[in-house]
Amino acid sequence: MHAELLRARLIISKIWQLLLVRKRWIFAILGLGVVLILIAPLYTVSAARGKIYSVTNVPKRDVAIVFGAGVYQDGTPTPFLESRLLAGIKLYDAGKARVLVMSGDNRTTHYNEPAAMKRYAVTHGVPARAVVLDYAGYDTYDTCYRVHNLFGVDSAILVTHGYHLPRAMLTCNSLGIKSVGVKADRSNISFSKNYLAREVLSINKSAVQLIFKPKPGVLGPKVNSVWTALARGV
Questions:
Q1: SS3 call for 8
Q2: Alpha-carbon distance 35 to 205, whole Å?
Q3: CA distance 158 to 204
């Protein structure tokens, strides 16, 4: 009986030791995951430092890329998108960019974000010939990939909100577009902590995309619309 009790205690001790080892591994893996999740955002923000400007002091580029941010059913830009469009329009009016590439979502016939963006810019004085549309900018990666590979753009001002600019700049730079950024005004827009949490996840998603560099789901033939617009002297 005593021997059986000792044997049982020995078995329990071994099981406990195994659990402790596994716990250490579990905590180590979780800790490594947290570190990796934090490294990508820190690197992304650091890489953008010194490359984000105001409309007045941003270096001139032939092209500015305005990232979509949603339209209502009637085609009216959301406040997020409107603030980005206004920044793009200011760049054009100030002579900082000669062509505005409007990149957004048009995956259904009932939702045409780029067309709404162009309509808004034209009603605010930008010549229609100075606006080029990217209809399949479903996310930041797709926009940067398509604008470089299909439109032939290798240098641009990126126009979006401050929380998004570092990721947009790192993505475009990694895919062949030398980028500087201009922040859209956010004075009339309220941000929640959810935006920052989502951006951390989006940055890590982008990191994976930039490692493997997959082709976007929608590509198509190369187009000369940007260079045609520039040749017209817009």
A1: helix
A2: 15
A3: 20
The first and second tokens of residue 160, run together, are 């979006």
Q: How many CB atoms neighbour CB 169 within 10 A?
A: 25
Q: How far from the centroid of its chain's Cα atoms is residue 84's Cα?
A: 13
* pTM score, whole prediction: 0.84
**Token output for 85:** 């469009």
What does the pLDDT profile of the chain (234 residues) look like in tens digits? 556 656 656 666 665 565 555 555 555 455 445 555 678 888 888 888 999 999 999 999 999 999 999 999 999 999 999 999 999 999 999 999 999 999 999 988 889 999 999 999 999 999 999 999 999 999 999 999 999 999 999 999 999 999 999 999 999 999 999 999 999 987 766 666 677 778 888 888 898 899 899 999 888 889 999 989 888 876
